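Morning!

This is the sequence you dropped in the shared folder:
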Amino acid sequence: MAQKIKLFEKNKIDYQNENITITVTDSVATDNGQAIVDYIRNRNNNSSWVTTESTDAAGTYLEIDMADTEAIDTIILVGHNFKNFTIYYWNGGSYTAIQAYTNSIAYTTQCTFTEVQTSKIKILISSCQTTDDDKFLKQLIVTKLVRQLAAYPEISKPTHETYRSIGKMLSGKSNFVSQIGGFSVDLKLGYWNNDDDLLCLEKLFFNRLPMLLWLCGGDEDQFKFKRVGYRLEDLYLVRPSNDYVPQWFSNVYSTGLDISIKLVESVD
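The structure's back. Tokens below.
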């Protein structure tokens, strides 16, 4: 079933949060990946946490201490090879299981649950999709859903900037200065009349806080092809770059609003 666009709060364990501590436990691996485990919170799918010579029997743990108590209802594991694993949250005295996954073949997993207040998350990885493979995880997103839009706005100009500038060298060759990220998209709807959607947009414009944008909403199969920007692993921290112009459709006050919002990938 097709899922509409989702917006989430900024990842609670984003790399800009200096209070996060992640501990890896693996009794078998010659390298449990502790030195690179922070890659799972750097917003980049081109890097990952990975073990060396771990096995299914290791019973590998990732324990995330957020230091502060946070309200969360969604955990997304982006780019992983876990087959049997369990996600837990700290209830103040012990760990409580949120969800156990058995025989998973997913590359990206969305775990949704009733909101909890917690300061710690733990993931037990019991086995991989290929027996005794080393574990890997590209991103771990711990967050809270802000809104799944009721409307289907037009997704216009989804842009992935691959180069910031091009200069000419003395030899006449081009010199490309590349950048990471640089995603932007316009969401347009000529008749936006859902009050909760509009409240969400106003929150985006006026609270000055970026949100995580998930264009596929958790269902990449609704698109004919699994293309960049519309896949499960494509989540972007964005904020509006245009002004808020809430114009009534056809200037009839009892209709919906004709709104266009330009969202650009945010550094903070």
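Headline: The CA atoms of residues 194 and 268 lie 29 Å apart.

More detail when I'm at my desk.
O.
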